[in-house]
Amino acid sequence: MNVYLAGPMRSHPVDLNYPAFYAAAADLRAEGHFVYNPPEVIPFETDIRRAMTLDTAWICTYADAIALLPGWESSTGATAEHALAKAIGIEVILL
Questions:
Q1: Residues 4, 36: contact at Cβ < 8 Å?
Q2: Of 30, 38, 44, 31, whose CA–CA distance to 68 is shortest?
Q3: Residue 62, SS3?
Q4: pLDDT of the chain, 95 residues: tens digit per residue
Q5: pTM here?
Q6: CA gap 55, 33 in Å, rounded
Q7: Within 10 A of 30 (CB to CB), how many other CB atoms are there?
Q8: Residue 92: C-alpha distances to residues 14, 28, 43, 50 (Å)
Q9: Is 78 in contact with 48 (CB distance < 8 Å)?
Q10: Contact 65, 3 (CB under 8 A)
């Protein structure tokens, strides 16, 4: 399954929650999934508008599911990605 990984980032100013993203991606890959992990794909310095354009395009084009990290509800980006996943009818996985 192609899984998009979403969660809070900007609320973690020191490490942007990268450790949680990388750990979740490793777990999902160990289960046999292809994982789109934004920290691995989008350069750190990319502005939010460009990052969301790339991320939502991937969700719409390739994702079979979206996996949500703990705390996703407090992230404006992750809540938008969750709403998109629901709107297009892909599976939502709560991690």
A1: yes
A2: 38
A3: helix
A4: 999 999 998 888 778 899 999 999 999 999 999 999 999 998 878 898 999 999 999 999 999 999 999 999 999 999 999 999 999 999 999 99
A5: 0.94
A6: 18
A7: 8
A8: 28, 14, 25, 24
A9: no
A10: yes
